[in-house]
Amino acid sequence: MLQLNDPILDALLTELAVSEGLHVINPATQETLISLEPSSLKSVDSQIDACSVAQKEWAARSTKERALLLKRWFELLIQHQMALATLMTLEQGKPLRESLAEVTYGSSFVEWFAEEAKRAYGEVIPANKVHQRITTIRQPVGVCAAITPWNFPLAMITRKAAPALAAGCGMVVKPSELTPLTALAAVHLAHLAGIPEHLLSVIVSAQSSEVGELLTGDKRIKKLSFTGSTRVGKILMQQSASTVKAVSMELGGNAPFIVFDDADLDQAVEGLMASKFRNAGQTCVCTNRLYLHRNIKDAFLAKLIPRVEQLKAGNGLEEGNSLGPLISIAAKHRLEVLVEEALAEGAQLLMTPQSLPGHFMPPILLDRVTHQMDIIHHELFGPVLPIVEFTDDDEVIAMANDTEYGLASYFYTESLKRAVRVSEALEYGMVGINEGLISTEVAPFGGIKESGLGREGARQGLDEFLETKYICLGDL
């Protein structure tokens, strides 16, 4: 039986375990961790119904009371961070230190929105008639649904649920069927904190299409927040149109990482390592393409290659391993095909990759990649890095923008003039200048173009779950 040495979460897992059901697999070992009873479509309907009742009661509470309960949830997440991180590594694969970092990051959204709950301000607007008074107030959207991915099984939930609850909304969460345990544990802690059980609940199901169709078509759900692929996001948006449902979409990425010839190369290497190889390259904001100025390319690679060679793939619970497994064999095979095609088109391996078993994949650096190669235009989601040489600022900006995605981008320079010009020219929702890790609860996270709609985190994250009501008082 799966044990975390945490009495509260171990009791939860014991309660959830069934002999036959949805199997949760450890991608590092291929072992079944636990079997869960899947949610039926009928039970999902009941969850939505119960959430509708609970949401009205929750919205009637004071913002101070909602904030207090969110703060208690934050404290419980931190109190149980080691068990949550261990559970995350077991079902998702990332190294334990990265899982611990995600618990800290994910919890930060709960703390932030506990504070922002009290700041859903309206306005007093000068009226154009002397006998009128015009005001606006902010009210919760209502019952919301969230569909979240496997790569950040805690943070992708708290980044949505915390602002929804802070605004006075309720939420049903459909986590990936590959990583439901972290979601169940986090929501259980929310209930222990005093957040009503029916207000925030989890759907456990491998019927992603059926559940998605149910959630998007249900008129009781007023908003859908989704993190995942652009392809699926488009389907959910189309389905949501039938009920004119509000949507937030955090979709695919194809992040460029540009190193100009005046960059601090040591700093740039550190930023690239953090951006590219975290979670084995399985993040929506990780570096997807590396652009090196011709003048510094050889010097940069001379510093980068030894760092990449130090990466060690293995079970995330074992000390010293820095690359966890890919989420599936299919993901690994897809990358291997893209690498083979690039090599056939003239790309060159900078390191001889080690053959690894199972879901594990070694880091692969591909030099002499051109912008015409297919690998440049795919979201790789793995430890494969194509390298493109450039000589001119306008040239590299054009190449960086040559994608339907517009989520995150990065570049390194010591020139203030270039920093301003390039950051404004890059067609991305987020730009990191001399920084490879840009995600934080205090800044708005989100993309443009086909990378999505809306923002998560910061004060803008609360806005996503609030409606603005205009009130005109006349005859004064």
Automatic annotation (TrEMBL):
Superkingdom, taxonomy of origin: Bacteria
Alphabetized UniProt keyword annotations: Oxidoreductase
CDD domains: ALDH_F5_SSADH_GabD
Coiled-coil annotated spans: none
Active site, UniProt feature: E250
Pfam families with a match to the protein in the record: Aldedh
Record flagged with keyword Oxidoreductase: yes
All residue ranges annotated as the Aldehyde dehydrogenase domain in the record: 21-471
Family: Belongs to the aldehyde dehydrogenase family.
Annotated protein name in UniProt: NAD-dependent succinate-semialdehyde dehydrogenase
Organism: Vibrio cidicii
Organism phylogeny: Bacteria, Pseudomonadati, Pseudomonadota, Gammaproteobacteria, Vibrionales
